[in-house]
Amino acid sequence: MNSHEPNQKISKLNLPNLGLSLRILFTGYLLVTSVGLLSAGLQLLLTHGMADGQFGLSVDDVVYSYYGNRENSKLEVKLNGSMKDKATVQERTEIIRWVRTGSPENIWQEKIQPIVMEKCARCHGGIAGLPDFTTYEAIKTVAKIDEGASVGDLARVSHIHLFGISFIFFFICLIFSLASGINPILKALAIGTPFVFLLVDVFSWWLTKWYPAFAYTTIIGATCYNAAATYMILTSLYQMWILPRRRHEHQKNTWFEE
Ligand code: HEC
Question: In this structure, which residue's CA is closest to atom 34 in ligand 1?
């Protein structure tokens, strides 16, 4: 049998042996998705990256984006600032605890309104030009805290992210599965990693919404799947364009023999 028999060709199914048109197709796809991944990274830097007021992505950015910044209501800031001398430490602590737990109306009536009536109302309710804090609706506006992403936001972004990114990874991994001469364990790990860490990343967003410490797993998840994608893209490009120039025979069918 000479080497042009079809089953001989199939037994050499691997990236360095691909014909020009498939190499162009795969390369075009890998380059365009790389640019896409980079611009997603840039967008992340510009939106979430600025959440803590400083450029660059940090754990604080992730916490602020998903968990929110619950210490920054106007009421709490003032109670620790220019209104500090207007109430006792216990009273201020009571109000701040109420604010951080989302300022529920029943606690307002029970505990907070009496303090406000006694300590704040002679100015905030009595003096024209100063905001009136004697009603729940009025104080709500200064008690507002930033609770980060809402459940609706998270559900929307999660499903777009899971469908969209797994689709992108599917093709990156499929192309990389044709790479020749890579240790089979390493190859299987590289192909499995993006999917596992995509799930880790998205689950961590939800957990961060309630437990800020999960900001770390969010960052670890994203770093791992991006590292795996970068490795697979670079290896595939190398094997399609550089390896064929080296006079080395690639005999394996990468899909069936390891
Ligand atoms: C003696 C009068 C007086 C009392 C009593 C007083 N405040 Fe004020 N408050 C002011 C003045 C004047 C300002 C505007 C200047 C400033 O922001 O520091 C103000 C501003 C505020 C603001 C910012 C309002 C805004 O929209 O900018 C908050 C919040 C506030 N006070 C909360 C309180 C609370 C809570 C208490 C009771 C524990 C209280 N204040 C007691 C005089 C008072």
Answer: 120
